[in-house]
Protein backbone atom coordinates (compact mmCIF):
# COMPACT_ATOMS: atom_id res chain seq x y z
CA UNK A 1 0.00 0.00 0.00
CA UNK A 2 1.44 3.35 -1.03
CA UNK A 3 0.62 6.51 0.92
CA UNK A 4 1.23 10.08 -0.22
CA UNK A 5 0.71 13.61 1.05
CA UNK A 6 0.08 14.34 4.70
CA UNK A 7 -0.83 11.71 7.26
CA UNK A 8 -2.35 13.72 10.07
CA UNK A 9 -5.40 13.61 12.31
CA UNK A 10 -7.68 14.24 9.32
CA UNK A 11 -6.23 11.60 7.01
CA UNK A 12 -5.14 8.97 9.57
CA UNK A 13 -8.65 7.43 9.74
CA UNK A 14 -8.48 6.92 5.98
CA UNK A 15 -5.14 5.16 6.38
CA UNK A 16 -6.56 2.96 9.14
CA UNK A 17 -9.56 2.04 6.95
CA UNK A 18 -7.30 1.27 3.98
CA UNK A 19 -5.08 -0.96 6.14
CA UNK A 20 -8.14 -2.72 7.59
CA UNK A 21 -9.49 -3.33 4.06
CA UNK A 22 -6.17 -4.76 2.94
CA UNK A 23 -5.92 -7.00 6.00
CA UNK A 24 -9.50 -8.25 5.51
CA UNK A 25 -8.17 -10.10 2.44
CA UNK A 26 -5.84 -12.12 4.73
CA UNK A 27 -2.58 -11.36 2.90
CA UNK A 28 0.67 -13.08 3.81
CA UNK A 29 2.27 -9.66 4.21
CA UNK A 30 1.51 -5.96 4.20
CA UNK A 31 3.86 -3.14 3.29
CA UNK A 32 2.90 0.46 4.01
CA UNK A 33 5.08 2.62 1.77
CA UNK A 34 5.47 6.15 3.15
CA UNK A 35 8.03 7.22 0.52
CA UNK A 36 5.71 9.90 -0.86
CA UNK A 37 4.52 11.23 2.51
CA UNK A 38 5.48 14.84 3.14
CA UNK A 39 4.10 15.02 6.70
CA UNK A 40 3.69 12.21 9.24
CA UNK A 41 1.86 13.31 12.35
CA UNK A 42 1.27 11.52 15.61
CA UNK A 43 -2.12 10.25 14.42
CA UNK A 44 -0.46 8.50 11.47
CA UNK A 45 2.24 7.06 13.69
CA UNK A 46 -0.48 5.77 16.03
CA UNK A 47 -2.16 3.96 13.13
CA UNK A 48 1.12 2.22 12.29
CA UNK A 49 1.71 1.22 15.92
CA UNK A 50 -1.84 -0.08 16.28
CA UNK A 51 -1.52 -2.05 13.05
CA UNK A 52 1.74 -3.59 14.20
CA UNK A 53 0.24 -4.49 17.58
CA UNK A 54 -2.93 -6.03 16.10
CA UNK A 55 -1.68 -7.66 12.91
CA UNK A 56 -1.01 -11.08 14.40
CA UNK A 57 1.63 -13.65 13.64
CA UNK A 58 0.21 -14.90 10.34
CA UNK A 59 0.73 -11.60 8.45
CA UNK A 60 4.14 -10.01 8.05
CA UNK A 61 4.20 -6.19 8.30
CA UNK A 62 6.75 -3.66 7.12
CA UNK A 63 6.84 0.13 6.80
CA UNK A 64 8.91 1.89 4.14
CA UNK A 65 10.15 5.23 5.41
CA UNK A 66 13.08 7.29 4.23
CA UNK A 67 14.09 10.82 4.99
CA UNK A 68 13.43 13.32 7.72
CA UNK A 69 9.66 13.39 7.28
CA UNK A 70 9.04 9.72 7.97
CA UNK A 71 12.16 7.76 8.92
CA UNK A 72 13.45 10.25 11.45
CA UNK A 73 10.35 10.49 13.67
CA UNK A 74 9.84 6.72 13.59
CA UNK A 75 13.41 6.04 14.67
CA UNK A 76 13.50 8.84 17.25
CA UNK A 77 10.44 7.30 18.88
CA UNK A 78 12.08 3.86 18.81
CA UNK A 79 9.37 2.41 16.60
CA UNK A 80 12.02 0.75 14.46
CA UNK A 81 12.70 -1.48 17.49
CA UNK A 82 9.12 -2.80 17.55
CA UNK A 83 8.25 -3.06 13.86
CA UNK A 84 10.02 -3.73 10.61
CA UNK A 85 11.19 -0.46 9.07
CA UNK A 86 12.95 -0.24 5.69
CA UNK A 87 14.29 2.70 3.72
CA UNK A 88 13.35 1.32 0.28
CA UNK A 89 10.44 -0.68 -1.11
CA UNK A 90 12.83 -3.27 -2.57
CA UNK A 91 14.27 -3.85 0.90
CA UNK A 92 10.78 -4.33 2.35
CA UNK A 93 9.82 -6.78 -0.39
CA UNK A 94 13.01 -8.77 0.22
CA UNK A 95 12.47 -8.75 3.98
CA UNK A 96 8.91 -10.08 3.67
CA UNK A 97 9.96 -12.69 1.10
CA UNK A 98 12.71 -13.94 3.43
CA UNK A 99 10.44 -14.16 6.47
What does this structure look like?
This is STAS domain-containing protein. InterPro entries: STAS_dom (IPR002645), STAS_dom_sf (IPR036513). It holds the Pfam family STAS. Residues 1-96 form the STAS domain. By secondary structure, the chain is α/β, with parallel strands linked by helices. The protein has a single domain, classed as STAS domain (Transcription Regulator spoIIAA, 2-Layer Sandwich). It has four helices and four strands; from the N terminus they run βαβαβαβα. The protein has a four-stranded parallel sheet, sandwiched between helices. α2 links the parallel β2 and β3 (60-64). α1 (12-23) runs parallel beside α2. The longest helix has 13 residues, at 42-54. The protein is globular. The two termini are 19 Å apart. 25% of the residues are buried. The mean pLDDT is 94.
Amino acid sequence: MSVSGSVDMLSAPWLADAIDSALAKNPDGLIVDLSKVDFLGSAGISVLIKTNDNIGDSTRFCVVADGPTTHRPLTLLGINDTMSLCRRLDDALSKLADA
